[in-house]
Give the backbone structure.
Amino acid sequence: QVQLVESGGRLVQAGGSLRLSCAASLRTFSNYALAWFRQAPGKEREFVSVISRLCVMTYSDSVKGRFTISRDNAKNTLYLQMNNLKPEDTAIYYCKAVFGINIYWGQGTQVTVSS
């Protein structure tokens, strides 16, 4: 059974940094495009960043220049380095893996940024 397990979320002050991790039990991890989404209270889930199998990275305008996505195929792990955090970054962060018709989501990790 495929599992994506996020970790690293916690309470942090504005201006601080966090690194989220997403460990995946995918046999062909390197073939997958991997992404981070987030969902704030009362809002829809929104795209944050994606990294392709060839390591092409894309970011939403709201996090560009502050967040960095990366992957370690040897460890089957996706990362999100978040710097200069703002209160509006408060959300549950989810990782997503996509390869063809195969789509998997993690359960999420809570990030709370206090002002």
